[in-house]
Amino acid sequence: AQGKPLEYVATFEVYPDVKLADCAKLQIERVKAEVKDGDVAEMIETLRKQRVTYVPASRASRKDDQLVVNFTGYVNGVAFEGGKADAVPVVLGSGSMIPGFEEHLTGKSAGDEFAFEVTFPDDYRVDSLNQFLAWISTPDTARPCIF
To answer: What beta strand segments (E) does 7-77 contain?
Structure first.
C-alpha cells in the first residue's frame, strides 16, 4: 500500500565454497582379483538358475522341481491365522519353507491331495506355532528347464 514500507521475502541458493585437495599427493592401491576357471563356471550356473523356466511335468516331483501348492495349516485341529495360502510356488530343495515341508512334497504329482505334520523350528517368528498339520493340494507340478 502507498506510504508503507515495502516488505518481501527472497530465497537464494547459496553454494558452499569447496576447496579441492591436491590430487598429486593421493595414493591409490589397485586391487587385483584372481578369477579361476571354477569361479566362471559357478557364476554361469548361478545365472542359468536365475533365469530358469518351468514346464509341466507328467511324473512325480523330485529335487529342483517347482510345485504350485495350496495349503492350510492347523494347530490342534484349528486353522491358524496366516496358515492358509493358495498357488504358492515351492522349488523342492530350495529350503524356502520350514524344515520338513519340502520333503513331504517330494514324489507328489499334479492333482495330489494329502496331509502331513511338520514342526516349526524353535526360533520361528510365531512362538505359538510348535507343530501343525498341513492339508496340501498340488494343482501344478513342473520340472525345471534350464538353458
So the answer is: 53-56, 66-75
